[in-house]
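[audit] Reproducing an earlier prediction to check determinism. Same input, same settings, fresh worker. If the tokens differ from the archived copy the diff job will pick it up downstream; this log only records the rerun itself.
[audit] input (259 residues):
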Amino acid sequence: MDTRVRLAIDGPIATITNANPEKANAFDDAMDARLFEIFAEIAANRDLRAVIWRADGKSFSSGRDVGAIGTGAAGLTHHELMTRGHRGIQRILNLDVPVIVAVQGWAIGASFQRALLCDIRIASEDAKFMLPEVTHGVIPDTGGVARLFQICGHGVAADMVLTGRPMPAAEALGHGVVSRVVAREDLDTTAREVAEKIAAAPFVTVKMARRVLAHLSEHDVRSSMAEELIAQTFINKSDDFAEFQAARAEERSAHYTGS
């Protein structure tokens, strides 16, 4: 069992902890697999009423561990890797209990998108959010852009996706990406208070309220994932992506053709 993603259960509340602070909680394939297992375990536990997802160290997650790309999924195509990832993270959408995310420091790339797929996001004052995929020649592909679009609208989502710029906590609060910003030392306590308040409500009421909210948003999220799967697979085989990689390796300007 990979201990870099941990699950602890305290009464009706489960806590997931990103526990790879030496790498700013960057995720590799093994951590992904453990995270998806944890969501399956939470779904099977009928005594739980709320989930907190937090992190040790300075950052919630710096995204993908680029040093581990290509090392943990021998024999799988890029399309198959994305399909596995989509199936795993969609377990969040299928839960009966809400997930509260406590974000400090950086939440980057897929990790930011995964947080967007959860129910409530609380940020510390030093939190920053970023989708840098386009600057690496690819697109965000974890479904979170659909939720970002729902929250912020086209303009803000396009700005973040197309430029890869960071969004600080105060701006995230203004756009509704997070619902609260608190001092770093109060982050875990606040997340626990929110979870306890939810856990104290009638379970069937919370479950039905979450289902109503899901009906308003999940169709677009799942549709976006399907579109991302097609688009990212095409990009991976495109002339422009090959040119992007070659230009970086050769330290020269790239010449893109749109194909």
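[audit] rerun output stored. Observation attached for the diff report: The domain at 5-203 is CATH 3.90.226.10 (2-enoyl-CoA Hydratase; Chain A, domain 1).
[audit] end
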